[in-house]
Amino acid sequence: MRKKIVAGNWKMNKTFDDAENLIVEIGTGLREMGIEGKEVVLCPPFLFTEMTVDLSQEHPFYVGVQDISEHEEGAYTGEISAQMVRSLETNFAIIGHSERRMHFNEDDEVVARKVDMAIKNSINPIFCCGEQLEARKDEKHFDVVRGQIEEGLFHLDKSELINVVIAYEPIWAIGTGETASPEQAQEMHAFIRNLISVKYNNELADSVTIVYGGSVKPDNAVEIFGKPDVDGGLIGGASLDAKGFLKIVAALPTDDNN
Ligand code: PEP
What we know:
single chain, eight-stranded parallel β-barrel, 8 strands, globular, binds phosphoenolpyruvate, alpha/beta
C-alpha cells in the first residue's frame, strides 16, 4: 500500500512567532480531524526546525527541511548537512526543488548527491522534478522528467528508492495559480511509475509515493488527489494558511475511503 502524503513547503516565509502559531493551529486541526492513513509533513525554514520537531511530539505531523547540503561536513559556510538535520530527528528533506535548480544552479548531479546524503542519514527525500513551460509547449515534458528521474534517482537500489517521495511539480504551475489539470498530473505520474517499473519492477513502481505540486488549493485538491496515481501533494503558498492547508489534507483520500 502506498503512503499518502501532504507536505507543506513554507519556503522563505514567516517569523519565529508566526511559524509557531501556524504550526500549533495546523497541529491542533490535524488532531481534531484525525488523519489516519495519511502523513502530513511540515517543511518550515531551517531555523525553525527544532521548534517544529518539539511541537511534533504533541501533534500528528512529521518534520522536513527544504534542502540539505551535498557535502558531508567541513568548510562550507552557510550549509546545513544531512547529519545535522537527522540529529534533530527530522524525517524528510525536499531535494531538487525547481527554485533550488533555478536560483542556485543545482543540476542533476548535485541533486543526486543530495539524495545520497539524505538516504545515508535515514532522511526520506522528497525529490522534485518537473518541466518548464517551453518544454510542455514543445511536448518535451516527458523527456525532461525522464532525464531528471534517471539522473537523480536511478542510481539507487530498490531498498533506497522505496524511501523516496517523488514530487511532480511542473514549473509553470508553481506559485502561478496555474495548475496542471488532474489529467495532466495523472498522465505524468503514470509515466513516472512506468519508468520505475521498467528500471526496477512493477511491485516497486506500485509502492513508490508520487505527489503533485503546483498551485494546489482547497478548491482543486479533491479533483487532483482523486486521480489513481496521485498520492498526495507538495503544497507551497497554500500551506501558509492553516485553514486552507487543513482542507487540502482533508481532501486526500485514503485507501479506506478511495
Ligand atoms: C512548491 O513550491 O513546491 C509549490 C508547489 O508551490 P505552490 O503550491 O505555491 O505552487
